[in-house]
Amino acid sequence: QEIVSGESEEESSGVNLMEFSDEILLHILSYVPCTDLVLNVRRTCRKLATLCLDKSLTHTVLLQKDYKVNKDKVKQLMRDIGKEIYQLNMAGCYWLPSSTIDHVTRCKNLVKLNLSGCHVTSLRLSKMLSTLQHLRSLAIDVNPGFDASQLSSECKATLSRVSELKQTLYTPSYGVVPCCTSLEKLLLYFEILDRSREGFMLSGQLMVGESNVPHYQNLRVFYARLAPGYVNQEVVRLYLAVLSDRTPENLHAFLISAPGSFAETGATKNLLDSMARNVRLDALQLPKAWINGSGLLQHLKFNNPFYFSFSRCTLSGGHLIQRVINGGKDLKSLTSLNLSGCVHCLAPESLFRKAEDDIDSSILESLVVSCCNLRHLNLSAAHHHSSESIGNHLCQLLSRLKHLLSLALPVCSITDVAANVEKPPAASNLVPQTFGRKVRIGIQTYPRNLADQASQKIESSVFWALMGSLRFLETLEIIGSSFSSAMPRNEPAIRNSLPPCVRAQSVGDSEVAAISQLTYLQSLTLAQLPNILTGSGLINIGLQCQHLQTLSLANLGMMGKVAYMSALMDMLKHCKCLRDLRLEQPYFCAGAQFFQALSHCSSLQRLCIVSRSGTLQSDAVMSFMANCLEVIMCHMFMGESLTVCKNLQQSIVRSFQADRPALNVVIFPLLHEDLTEVIRDVPMRHLDEITLFKSRVAEEPPNLWW
């Protein structure tokens, strides 16, 4: 309707949208959600009616973040273009009732189907898959109550032709893996809790009747990601047991992401020995206990590796260069490298080294030269301190990686060594520790625009130069090496945090201002920057980084007050593309002024605030929700009472749920003993992408799943 009503104005100016070529119009329409195209836009005129049903627009239907879609829209969509759909992505559509899946049976030609996060029973899955004879790629959840014996022979026949399977497990089970006899890619996400809601300990043993053996003979990619918990480790060992008997000859990617301690067993050792003898890998990630202290990397063979993750391993820089980089041979293919928490990876050896000692710049230089095509690099969760050698600062060496799209660094790694020595400590550290007269501590004043920042010659800093050289960077994370979120996964909230690294004490507003040079920045995470005094750099980012979609700020400046609140509110007024905002800060006041500023973010969809002793104004929250019509997730973990939190949560749901089917609201006291029980009900999409804090750079291989 808007297109038609605007035609008269366009004609008067000499430009008519309908006069564009079909190719241009198809390109424009490709940015419109498929539900809008089919159910709305195609009804405006005859030309658009034809174009909206073009195969280029109906071949692939993405509903995974179409938060306005409901059961009726899906039903109508499948009825109109079901036979034209070859790829359907409904991942994370948690708000749709399970009966919605029944309409997928209209898509007779489906080749790829993603139902992760959707409610699907065994019987519904069986009925649906029985009709999808062309299916080759499938993603599903396996929930408690799943029964493989309910799958029909027609369903199993479809599964036997599936070559790519992604399975998220919420209960100990093989799921549909034993039925998939042609598997080439297997992705497993283990989200099984150690205790039931009633408090009973769960076992990692598979359900009765699930003793079928998985078929791995054609496997090329094996990926397993484990949530914290012993049961997840027990179950993944059952999946690995088959691999240890016979390693697939075509295996080229083997990845296991496991938090904490995941001990190596005899079976896993046999598996790794077999891999070292029989396969050449392109991607590798192993639990730290499987690598630490072993000579495994010396024996593994690599073909054209594109992804390595040695997260949290004690791998030294010497071993990294000798056993992985191999003197720079054949590493031009490497595009993604995760060294998060690998505290000694830039030092020649780790035996007598302290984590805070200076890095060996020659190791980093070898890494940069050998892996010159890196697009994703994670060096967070470690102390990477540069020496005073001229030209060998970590930031100067990283500036050579011109292809970087995402980068994660510890705060202490971006400080100028000379400036760190000459610069006096931040005002917050000058408070006298003796009794006597009170001393008024002055706050350093920072200019609020880029030109004034330049006058202070901050452009001469190594971090400013790094940001200037990485013009196409899309994701940046600057995280304190000792930072830990107040919201761990399956534990009570952390009440005390570790102090920041001494080298990080000088990192503040000027460094944040340097980030504003990243014109194409889409995602920004800043955590534990102790010298944030006014937050003036945030305003520069809001003005210059107009593509910013995701913003996560945690523990900036002094912990006793939110010194950057005024600057944050000014920044938000310019963030028109911002979709996800996560704030973690003690004593944060979510009041009327904050929500009024946040209302300028017209594209905002998800908001998460984590604040020990934080406060909120219920009326301001309700007004914000009424003004920002796109918001479908509101998570607040504050210092308010349980009664205040519950009343506000109920008010939001009662007022907005009808118009926003995907609305998910959780407002709960941060330090309440039942927090973990509340967290377990949060949809995995929100929990994994925004509610829980973690470094996401190079977390998984690029293009692991569509």
Automatic annotation (TrEMBL):
What domain of life does the UniProt record list for this protein's source? Answer: Eukaryota
What do the Gene Ontology cellular component annotations say? SCF ubiquitin ligase complex
Which biological process, per GO, is one annotated for this protein?
SCF-dependent proteasomal ubiquitin-dependent protein catabolic process
- What Pfam families is this protein classified in? F-box-like, LRR_FBXL18
Q: Which residues form the F-box domain?
A: 14-61
Q: Which PROSITE patterns match?
A: FBOX (PS50181)
Q: Which PANTHER family match?
A: F-BOX AND LEUCINE-RICH REPEAT PROTEIN 18, F-BOX/TPR REPEAT PROTEIN POF3
Protein name, please?
F-box/LRR-repeat protein 18
